[in-house]
Design goal:
With 118 residues, the protein is mostly helical. The chain has a single domain, classed as AhpD-like, CATH 1.20.1290.10. It is 87% helix and 0% strand. The protein is built from five helices and no strands. The mean pLDDT is 97.
Amino acid sequence: MDWISKRNNTKDQLRVLNKAIPDQTRAFGALGKAVKEGGELDFKTKELVAMGMAIVLRCEACIVLHMEALVRVGASREEVGDVLAMAIQMGGGPAMMYAAEAMECYDQLIAEKVQAAE
């Protein structure tokens, strides 16, 4: 899968949704901000949890957006791998398939980040 295109298409779809139901999407965004900024866990840890949930829930759009956040905050391939392993343990065979996709997504987003830095 081309995860860069998936990310861009997902963001385009969300922009359309935001225009259609702005009050609701703004409220959902405020919830996300409050969850990610408050509490005891740091942002990267919360994104790792979200990644595990995205795998088990089989949400490709969630995978790419949370993986983008993890790449942005410097999550290592090993950290991502630990989360994928936990998701597989909790979600079984289907989670393994989505975990494989998520690792491919990580690799593509890291390659994009390295290329942009050159």
